[in-house]
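Thread title: Can someone regenerate the structure for this chain?

I was given the following input by a collaborator and told the matching structure tokens would be attached. They weren't. Posting the sequence so someone can regenerate them.
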Amino acid sequence: MNTITSKHSALLEYFCGSKHNQEELAELTERLQCAPTKVERFRSGQFVAHQGDSIDSLVLLTKGVVRIEVVSPTGDRLYTNEHEAPFPLIASLLYSSEQRFANDIIAVKDCEIEYYDREIIEKLLEECPTFRRGFLTFSSNLIYGLSQQLQIFSIRKIKGKLAYFILQKMEPSGYFSLDMSVTSLAKYFGVTRSALSRVISELASDGAIYYTRGFGEVLDIKKLRDSI
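Best answer:
Regenerated them for you:
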């Protein structure tokens, strides 16, 4: 792990996005002095954070990919998902009563992490409406995503988990993308890759979906819903 310095604000770019041009972002960065407090690099396989570690900064993944895992009281590891840069690893939890990492965060590929002090975030939330909206939108989407995960975990059968997952990913046109490999999705469900591949084939054979290489189309939404 190496510590480096940075003069840029990936934080503003993530939360403000296309709503600000580069000149406006540079002006905000200078005016609010929102350069990261520190930047660290982690090699593949290294722990970025451990479940239970204290939080005193907003943590932003700016390069690479990380895996999120939850450790149960018995030591079992539950895979949740992977995140590719750019992505805030800690945002809302910065203001939780516990202020501790709820998961293990592990580098899947070499990655770079930026840390922003709480005071910087509070200043941005107060003085930049676009940043405030982006921060609140991210936090709301995260809560919604967690509720969807709980729903999936409550479904016992693999076919039901997959059917529910596809329905959540389905566009109005009926097309869907899994947004991850079958291997990653199997880890997400807590099942083997072969078992998940078999269920995908079953749904396709039943005429519920058409699927190929991460993309597909819902052919019979009733059959898919009945699989849950």
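The helical segments are 10-16, 22-32, 118-127, 129-154, 158-169, 182-189, 193-205, 221-226.
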